[in-house]
Structure formats: structure tokens, C-alpha cells
Amino acid sequence: MSADHIHTHHADIAKRLKRAEGHLRTVVTMIEGGRSCLDIAQQLHAVEKAIGQAKRTLIQDHLDHCLEETVGALPRDKRGPIDEFKEITKYL
Fold first, then answer.
1. What are the structural domains, with CATH classification, of the chain?
2. Could you tell me the CA-to-CA distances from 50 to 1, 55, 92 in Å, in that order?
3. Alpha-carbon separation of residue 42 from 45, 50, 53, 79 (angstroms)
4. Per-residue pLDDT tens over the stretch 4-45
5. What is the pTM of this model?
6. What is the DSSP secondary structure assignment for residue 78, as one 8-state letter?
7. pLDDT at 4
């Protein structure tokens, strides 16, 4: 695979990561400003969720495109393991 490929959800992933970046900047400002641990923890949770969702979206997007491209068209009765693998990755 080439290093410069773009998939359907890459723009969504970039948007999520920019949101996480904003949350992270806010966390630093909050820590420097002496905000409460509860407020900081809530912002850190938002960062964590945004990054986690970006990672899941990237993995799903990769599987939907690259794995399918590699495996090619398979008869329905042979798709079981691939479809199950794609489904289980949602729990990463």
C-alpha cells in the first residue's frame, strides 16, 4: 500500500483529532490556572474519547477498504470469518 492513500473517513478522523487537540489545550490551560481536579478530569475524558473514536474510525475505515481490496470479492458463504473479524474490531 502506498503511504499517501486517503479513505472515506479520513476527514472525519482529522476533525475528531482537531477537537481532541482543542480539549487538550484546554486541559493544559486548566492545570496552569489551578482549576479543580474534577473539571480537569472531565476535559481529559473528552480528549480520551475523541482520540479513541478517531482510532476506531481509522481501523474500521482501513478494514472496510484495504482488507476488502486485498481479499477481493468472495462468495457469501466464504465471507463469514472476514465479516466476523471486521465486527470484532469495533470492540478495540
1. 10-91 (1.20.58.1000)
2. 27, 9, 14
3. 5, 13, 17, 42
4. 666 778 888 999 899 899 999 999 999 999 999 999 999 999
5. 0.71
6. G
7. 62
Using 50, 70 and 90 to split pLDDT, how confident is the model at 66? Answer: confident
In the numeric block, which cell numbers belong to residue 35?
482549576
**Hey, what's the cell of 42?**
472531565
Question: How far are the Cα atoms of 14, 29, 32 from residue 25, in angstroms, in the given order?
Answer: 16, 6, 11
Cell triple for residue 6?
A: 486517503
Question: Which amino acid, 54?
Answer: A
Distances in Å between the Cα of 59 and the Cα atoms of 2, 5, 12, 62, 65 are 17, 14, 13, 5, 10
Terminal Cα distance for the chain, rounded: 23
Radius of gyration over every alpha carbon of the chain, rounded to an integer in angstroms: 18
